[in-house]
Write a structure and sequence with these properties.
The chain is of the alpha+beta class. The chain has one domain (2-104): Ybab, Chain: A (2-Layer Sandwich). The chain has 2 helices and 3 strands; from the N terminus they run H-E-E-E-H. The protein has helices spanning 2-30, 66-95; strands at residues 33-38, 43-48, 53-58. A 3-stranded antiparallel sheet has the order 1-2-3. The longest helix has 30 residues, at 66-95. It is rod-shaped, with a radius of gyration of 20 Å.
């Protein structure tokens, strides 16, 4: 009868540890930077791990067409965001003992 209580206490302890680990990961991610680029690195975007754009770099000879430049920016920004999301998913999965949490992020 009390064996189940011991198991439940162990599971609760593990859940609290996992929650603390995930909170630390989110804090660490907010202080991390991820880069995406396009057009042969002529356009680069830096985002933080909490998915905020930190910087945009455009090479002087990136292009003269505003529509093309906008497309290059979009590609670079999406690449940077994908890098950040992928890193977050990997770290959260590791913290959860290999459980795939991608649907929750």
């Amino acid at each position: 009868m009390f064996g189940n209580l011991g198991e439940m206490a162990g599971m609760l302890k593990k859940a609290k540890e996992m929650q603390a680990n995930m909170k630390k990961i989110k804090e660490d991610m907010a202080n991390s930077e991820f880069e995406g680029s396009s057009g042969g690195d002529k356009v680069r975007v830096i985002v933080s791990g909490d998915l905020r754009v930190q910087a945009v770099y455009v090479d002087n000879d990136a292009c003269s067409d505003p529509a093309t430049l906008a497309e290059l920016f979009q590609l670079a920004a999406n690449a940077a965001l994908d890098n950040a999301k992928g890193t977050l998913q990997r770290k959260m999965s590791e913290a959860a003992g290999g459980v795939d949490l991608s649907g929750l992020l």
